[in-house]
């Protein structure tokens, strides 16, 4: 299971597994915490691994490639690897778990008939980007039941054949999904794939330079596009302007420093790229609903 995540690489999440022979993780996320440490609420990112988000309490909203999904307690969302996503809203009592694993878990072994016919055709090139799994149909109820069981199994790490039980349930979930969507997957254009790659470059540039006074022209140049195309990519993919994304990321970094250091709010403001403390406080409150001081007090 993943016990730590390297957050210094920017927007791409790279899980580090305790057991490299069993690369499956479960994280539990609330508004103010994530366990084990990783990418949590309001933290936009992407990763190569497949993810299932299961709402264990309350409700939340998740944005995947610009599309917003509203999930209630007991519902789930499949997110394909490589897609930019973020949890944009969560009820105060909200809690969700994220199961993350590489596609090879579903194919049994490299080059298998299962991998060639039933895994790669659905996961390659964003053919199946995201799938909302709701209560109401027998097929979806089956998947949700397995996700609930999976959460319970992770509460008994170390039990006999723990890894085997997790793997069997994941494959069972995937089998139900491909049966449900057979014949209904979308065709993906080259322009769509190109836009995803451009967005990753531009967002990574912002993350690498969020402390600096970067310009819109500099962001666009990284992906070799015009300023207008840059704006369009951000609008279509994450429903934000590049400037709003920059400010949001600065707030996220500010939250990290508020949680893990004793630095004064003024020092944190300048460290994350704000020119004055009042602007940082105003932006922080707009994004989180509370001042930096209140946020720190709520954490501790």
From TrEMBL:
One Pfam family matching this protein: Cupin_2
SMART domains tied to this protein: HTH_ARAC
Recorded superkingdom: Bacteria
GO terms of molecular function: DNA-binding transcription factor activity; sequence-specific DNA binding
Matching Gene3D superfamilies: Homeodomain-like, Jelly Rolls
Keywords noted in UniProt: DNA-binding, Transcription, Transcription regulation
Ranges of residues in domain HTH araC/xylS-type: 200-298
InterPro entries found in the cross-reference section: Cupin_2, Homeodomain-like_sf, HTH_AraC, HTH_AraC-typ_CS, RmlC-like_jellyroll, RmlC_Cupin_sf, Tscrpt_reg_AraC-type_HTH
PANTHER family in the cross-refs: ARAC-FAMILY TRANSCRIPTIONAL REGULATOR (PTHR43280), HTH-TYPE TRANSCRIPTIONAL ACTIVATOR RHAS (PTHR43280:SF28)
Protein name as catalogued: Transcriptional regulator, AraC family
